[in-house]
Design a protein that fits this description.
Number of strands: 0
Shape: elongated
Order of helices and strands: HH
Helix content: 40-55%
Radius of gyration: 27 Å
Distance between the termini: 64 Å
């Protein structure tokens, strides 16, 4: 995850505050919302840049016929 600077949060919070009509006394709410949005964006970007997981060809099974249960013989108990 990339580091989110205080300036990044401040700019996003200010933009959110302006878009919300510049209400008085909502500094904390806009700050936390900005932090949440930036964190989610950073996490999404980090997940996109991860290398795809390689799967073995053996792990993929193509089966056109339905799988039928195997009947089991019961053992006799004495």
């Amino acid at each position: 995850m990339t580091d989110i600077s205080e300036d990044d949060i401040r700019r996003r919070a200010y933009a959110l505050w302006e878009a919300d009509g510049r209400p008085d006394g909502s500094h904390d709410a806009h700050w936390l919302l900005a932090l949440r949005e930036l964190t989610e964006e950073a996490n999404a970007a980090a997940n996109e840049t991860l290398a795809p997981v390689k799967t073995s060809k053996l792990s993929v099974v193509k089966n056109d016929a339905p799988i039928e249960p195997v009947s089991r013989k019961r053992s006799k108990t004495a």
